[in-house]
Design brief:
- This protein has 7 helices and 13 strands.
- With about 425 residues, the chain is an alpha+beta fold.
- The chain has 2 domains: about 20-210, Orthogonal Bundle (Helix Hairpins), CATH 1.10.287; about 215-415, Glucose Permease (Domain IIA) (Distorted Sandwich), CATH 2.70.70.
- Strands 1, 4, 5, 6, 7, 8, 9, 10, 11, 12 and 13 form an 11-stranded antiparallel β-sheet that branches.
- A hairpin with a 7-residue loop joins strand 2 (about 305-310) and strand 3.
- Helix 3 (about 125-135) crosses helix 4.
- The radius of gyration is 36 Å and the shape is elongated.
- About 20% of the residues are buried.
């Protein structure tokens, strides 16, 4: 009974250790993938930052890019620290397994040595024949023959087991060697990234100090930007309200026509303006909250939704009705979901904009130079909508203004886009 429990405990322990090792390997792989993704983001932001080096002047755009790089690099260093710890844990686990296998190999070799010694003593064929013939009965002779065969098979099995354990030890040692190389690589890379972070923090301090001396110009620039943003937002709000009003009028007219010209306020107020296709599209859009693709293939949020503090001016805030996404020069805006283009328009100082309807929902893409879609055109997810304006006077800053609406209500796009 005790032996049975001991075997069960041993099996549970082995499976548990295997599970921990598998989980650990998955964690290391996941951390490595996340590190690569963060490095790609850093590379993209660094390219945009290099564009600002053409101008010796400090700018808010330069500060934004430096801050973005600092944030991403801190995240990267943190991930690397976790990856180093995980690799260390896995190496310790592998080393422990090697020690266990080496002990097992030693025991197998001892057992095999005894077998060889016994075989040497009884090595002659005559001894084996006599062992069989000296049996008192025929059944006993058969049993002794079977015993000799099983003894021989057991020796062969021991040899195979020794070779198997040797191969396992070699495999584990190779794995430890690979982990050591990877660990060395990550430690070196972490050191490089830490030095880069230190340099960026110095740059941030210089740019910040320089911009703080230009408070008057910054206020003037902010007022001009806010004026343009307000004009654009008013135009968007008006166009969406008009679309909804016209859709409601059309539906109301259709209802009156079906009811023989009779209508009432209570009936009209319950009329839905969505067709079956639009209602389906609206439902699908809603189901993808938090999973919508970004309206650019590569970029980061440079201006968040809602009330945000100014990076330089104290006690000054801006109220963003959408989000600003900075992206490399010559980038294109793309539709975040299937829909129909309902508006394409321009506002002085804010370039061109496009509105796409997705049932009850609408997405707005502004600050475009060229528009690639027509009003009434059905667009698909990730289809190019237009080219984003690159401002050569502001370090080639390329920034998309993006909004999401549900009927007449503004929504926070950050909650809808995939993270």
């Amino acid at each position: 009974m005790f032996r049975t429990y001991l075997i069960q405990f041993f099996l549970i322990f082995v499976f548990a250790c295997s599970g921990i090792q598998l989980l650990s390997a998955q964690n290391v792989k996941q951390l490595e993938e996340e590190r690569k993704q963060t490095l790609q983001k850093l590379e993209a932001t660094s390219k945009m930052l290099n564009e600002t080096k053409k101008s010796q002047k400090s700018s808010l755009n330069k500060l934004t890019l430096i801050n973005k790089n600092i944030g991403e690099r801190k995240h990267l260093i943190k991930r690397m620290s976790t990856e180093i710890s995980q690799l260390d844990v896995e190496m310790q686990s592998l080393s422990q397994e090697v020690r266990q296998l080496e002990r097992r190999l030693e025991n197998l070799k001892k057992d095999y040595a005894k077998l060889v010694q016994e075989a040497y003593i009884n090595r002659s064929i005559y001894s084996k024949i006599m062992f069989v013939l000296s049996a008192e009965t025929f059944d006993q002779s058969v049993r002794r023959l079977r015993y000799l065969k099983e003894y021989s098979d057991y020796r062969k099995q021991q040899v195979r087991e020794i070779e198997k354990v040797k191969a396992q030890i070699e495999q584990k040692n190779d794995s430890i060697s690979r982990h050591k190389n990877k660990l060395t690589e990550v430690v070196k890379q972490k050191e490089v990234e830490t030095n880069k972070l230190s340099q960026e923090q110095k740059k941030e301090k210089i740019v910040l100090t320089d911009l703080q001396k230009k408070e008057k110009n910054l206020r003037k620039e902010l007022n001009a930007q806010q004026k343009k943003a307000n004009e654009l937002n008013k135009r968007i709000e008006y166009l969406i309200a008009e679309e909804i009003r016209k859709a409601e009028q059309k539906k109301a007219a259709e209802e009156r026509s079906r009811s023989g010209g009779k209508s009432s306020k209570s009936t009209t107020s319950k009329i839905t303006t969505l067709t079956k296709e639009e209602a389906l599209l609206s439902g699908n859009f809603e189901k993808n909250a938090g999973r919508l693709p970004w309206p650019v293939s590569n970029g980061f949020i440079s201006g968040r939704y809602g009330v945000q503090p100014h990076p330089i001016l104290k006690h000054v805030t801006t109220n963003n009705k959408g989000i600003y996404i900075q992206t490399p020069a010559n980038s294109t805006a793309r539709a975040v979901f299937d829909g129909v283009v309902t508006q394409r328009f321009s506002v002085p100082g804010s370039n061109n904009a496009v509105i796409i309807q997705h049932g009850e929902y609408r997405t707005v893409y502004a600050n475009l130079t060229d528009i690639y879609v027509r009003i009434g055109e059905k667009v698909s997810t990730k289809q190019a909508v237009g080219k984003i304006f690159t401002d050569s006077e502001k370090d080639n800053k390329t920034e998309l203004y993006f909004q999401i609406w549900k009927n007449k209500n503004l929504l926070n796009p950050e909650k809808w886009l995939a993270r």
